[in-house]
Design goal:
The complex is a heterodimer of chains A (396) and B (267).
Chain A lengths: L7 E2 L2 E2 L8 H15 L2 H15 L5 E3 L1 H7 L2 E6 L9 H14 L4 E6 L3 H13 L2 E7 H6 L1 H9 L3 E5 L6 H15 L3 E3 L10 H24 L5 E5 L4 H10 L6 E7 L19 E6 L2 E6 L23 H8 L3 E6 L1 H15 L5 H12 L8 E6 L7 H7 L5
Parallel strand pairs in A: 4-14, 5-6, 5-8, 6-7, 9-10, 9-14, 10-13
Antiparallel strand pairs in A: 1-2, 3-4, 11-12
Helix pairs in contact in A: 2-4, 4-5, 4-9, 5-7, 9-10, 12-13
Chain B lengths: L1 H12 L4 E7 L5 H13 L5 E4 L10 H12 L4 H14 L5 E5 L1 H7 L1 H11 L3 E4 L8 H9 L3 E2 L2 E2 L5 H10 L4 E4 L14 H9 L7 E4 L5 H9 L4 E4 L1 H9 L4 H17 L3
Parallel strand pairs in B: 1-2, 1-9, 2-3, 3-4, 4-5, 6-7, 7-8, 8-9
Helix pairs in contact in B: 2-4, 2-12, 4-6, 5-6, 6-7, 11-12
The chains are: A alpha/beta (396), B alpha/beta (267).
């Protein structure tokens, strides 16, 4: 761990991949370092964010919800970004990078389907071939997004191994990348995986936090008391956290998927479950992961496919360790409550992922009395109508 | 590491190359797995390569993945796997035994403790599928202390500069990956294999053993005729296990014949 210190966040992160992928990780690191400060690349990227994605996304004041909960709540509206979630920011950034590296094909994993749709969209726009790996459990519960990916010209490859969800889709994408590394870029969708992915994804998502900080200062003339975001792998959270990382007084709060509750062991709360959640090596990175005592990875559960993942991005493990960010969880039930409440009170149907962040605020509203809060509404809930209806016992 | 030295010396003297069969420990269960290993040794294997199954085997193709799931479903874990190696050692104390494992299983046991236990069980070498040399310092240190050889992979994409760094960290043998991608049997040997061997050979005296995609006697013959010191055959054997799960006697007979046949190609 000493040689490659720069690839770590404290002791978390690193590059734990088969030898065959090492040259690709290094090539990617070099390309990213070159492009992130390159004027032409940034012009191209920011042009797409503005004219194609529709950025900046709004910062919406929730008057009714604020009144109800006794605090001042703003939502960072990533649900308004093209394709309906923050995922498009990173997908476009990496797809541009893939083109700069001369790769002709991108592959991606997807859980909720939002990253798959974003990648398929970026690939369509930039003229790249696109294959998306998706667990068959997720294909079943996120049908609208499967259809969207197909319409966008991507090939959706069903993953039938393991728990048939996000972690297995990542396994398959890594295998594909190993075999096709010469012409293929693995467009990883969250702030996890081997270096440089966690750093690179955070970079492309940091636009969320940059905008939010500017917007809140303009509207309220002050910084928020807390910024709250849901955490699966943690890309929307790290994206908004980045904007406030240096504002030590702003509390950064990540919300994991509590599933059926921590004691049920059917959840994706890597930090909250002290018996199953420990640092370990998973998908190329050293970070908190749910596992048994031998290190076999534990299967997770969440009503939200996007948070249904065994590990958390390594930078979150670090932010928690240095106490710059805190992490909590919301259960499926609390999430569904928030899903309904936000829809009825504010006319915004949130993604089930994002509803976890709202649920945390509802559950802990007393702590935030009269405080200024920003919740990152990372995606819209259209994709979730079937599963939410099913959970709520409503026949469509 | 003496077992490796002795074996490669003996093979060199007899003008042979090493046949290195690979199976997953505990596939389909521990008792059958032990019989499989004994059959493989009796049929003429020179070195054993054994897989410790991990729930997220990113370097493995479908055949080894499925074997890993069979093993995990039959209750496989690190404690039992180490005990399994001890049982092999009661049967044969000469054959070198290498294991193929993923880093989290080592990390969770404690790196130092893992290599000590490995040595005590009779393991000669450890190859960690998801551990490049950049992350390997602590693992190598523990391995050296407990006299366990450290095997690393060289792939067609490994640059000469990187190769130089890797050879410095290797003990036992270099695992030459004959093609990009994951483990799995293929009908043809990738063309680049021979040129890769030619590229590595002048740069090291370490034994070179070729794996990934080797399934036929012709493949074994071809790499042995080139600069390789051994051939690693995994998925093809595991497929025999998979296809004969309901008839153990036939399974063992087929594995024995297959190994004998392959061994002929290394002579």
């Amino acid at each position: 761990m000493k040689i490659f210190q720069k690839n770590y966040f404290g002791k978390y992160g690193g590059i734990f991949v088969p030898e065959t992928l090492m040259p690709a990780c290094k090539q990617l690191e070099q390309a990213f370092n070159k492009c992130k400060n390159n004027k032409q690349f940034n012009n191209e990227f920011h042009y797409l964010l503005k004219e194609y994605v529709g950025r900046p996304t709004a910062l919406t004041f929730c008057d009714k919800l604020s009144k109800k909960l006794g605090c001042k709540i703003y939502l960072k509206r990533e649900d308004l970004a093209h394709t309906g979630a923050h995922k498009i920011n990173n997908a476009l950034g990496q797809a541009l990078l893939a083109k700069h590296m001369g790769k002709t094909r991108v592959i991606a994993e997807t859980g909720a389907g939002q990253h798959g749709v974003a990648t398929a969209t970026a690939a369509a726009k930039l003229g790249l071939k696109c294959d998306v790996y998706m667990g068959i459990v997720d294909i079943e519960r996120q049908k609208p997004n499967v259809f969207r990916m197909k319409m966008l010209g991507a090939n959706v490859i069903p993953v039938k191994t393991g728990s048939q969800t996000l972690k297995d889709a990542i396994n398959e994408a890594l295998r594909d990348w190993t075999a096709n590394v010469e012409d293929t870029h693995y467009l990883l969708g969250s702030a996890l995986g081997p270096h440089p992915y966690p750093t690179m994804v955070a970079h492309f998502q940091s636009i969320i936090g940059k905008e939010a900080r500017k917007q809140i200062l303009k509207i309220e003339k002050k910084l928020p008391y807390a910024v709250i975001a849901c955490v699966g792998g943690g890309s929307n959270a790290i994206g908004i956290f980045k904007g406030f990382a240096k504002d030590q007084k702003v509390k950064l709060i990540g919300v994991e998927a509590g599933g059926y509750g921590i004691s049920s062991k059917k959840h994706a709360a890597r930090f909250a479950d002290k018996s199953l959640g420990r640092p370990g090596i998973i998908h190329g990175s050293f970070t908190y992961v749910l596992q048994d005592k031998y290190g076999q990875i534990y299967n997770t559960h969440s009503v939200s496919a996007g948070l249904d993942y065994c590990a958390v991005g390594p930078e979150h493990s670090y932010l928690r360790e240095i106490k710059r960010a805190e992490y909590s969880y919301a259960t499926d039930k609390e999430c569904l409550g928030a899903f309904q409440l936000l829809s009825k009170e504010e006319g915004i149907i949130p993604a089930l992922e994002s509803a976890h962040a709202v649920a945390y605020l509802i559950k802990n509203h007393k702590r935030f009395k009269n405080k200024l809060i920003i919740v990152n509404l990372s995606g819209r809930g259209d994709k979730d109508i079937y599963i939410a209806a099913d959970e709520l016992g409503i026949k469509l | 590491m003496n077992r490796y030295n002795n074996t490669f010396k003996r093979l060199k003297k007899n003008k042979q190359k090493a046949l290195i069969p690979f199976v997953v420990v505990g596939d389909p269960n521990y008792s059958t797995s032990l019989e499989i290993v004994k059959t493989i040794i009796n049929a003429g294997a020179d070195i054993l390569e054994l897989g410790f199954s991990f729930s997220e085997p990113i370097a493995d193709g479908p055949t080894i993945q499925t074997a890993g799931i069979r093993a995990l479903n039959s209750g496989s874990n690190t404690d039992k796997n180490l005990n399994f190696i001890k049982q092999i050692r009661k049967f044969n104390n000469k054959i070198p035994i290498g294991i193929l494992i993923y880093s989290n299983l080592i990390y969770q046991r404690g790196i130092e403790r893992f290599y000590k236990d490995a040595r005590d069980s009779g393991i000669d070498s450890v190859l960690v599928a998801d551990l490049p040399i950049e992350e390997a310092d602590e693992y190598i240190k523990a391995a050296r202390k407990h006299k366990v050889a450290t095997v690393f992979i060289v792939s067609p994409l490994t640059s000469n500069e990187r190769l130089k760094k890797i050879t410095k960290k290797v003990k036992g043998f270099i695992y030459v990956v004959s093609r990009l991608g994951v483990t799995g049997a293929k009908s043809d040997l990738q063309k680049g294999t021979i040129s890769l061997l030619n590229r590595i050979r002048p740069k090291t005296n370490l034994p070179l053993c070729v794996g990934f995609g080797i399934s036929k006697p012709e493949h074994v013959k071809e790499v042995c005729k080139a600069k390789a010191n051994g051939a690693i055959v995994g998925s093809a054997i595991v497929k025999i296990i998979e296809k004969n799960l309901k008839n153990k006697r036939l399974m063992l007979k087929k594995i024995g014949n297959y190994i004998k046949n392959l061994k002929q190609s290394t002579l």
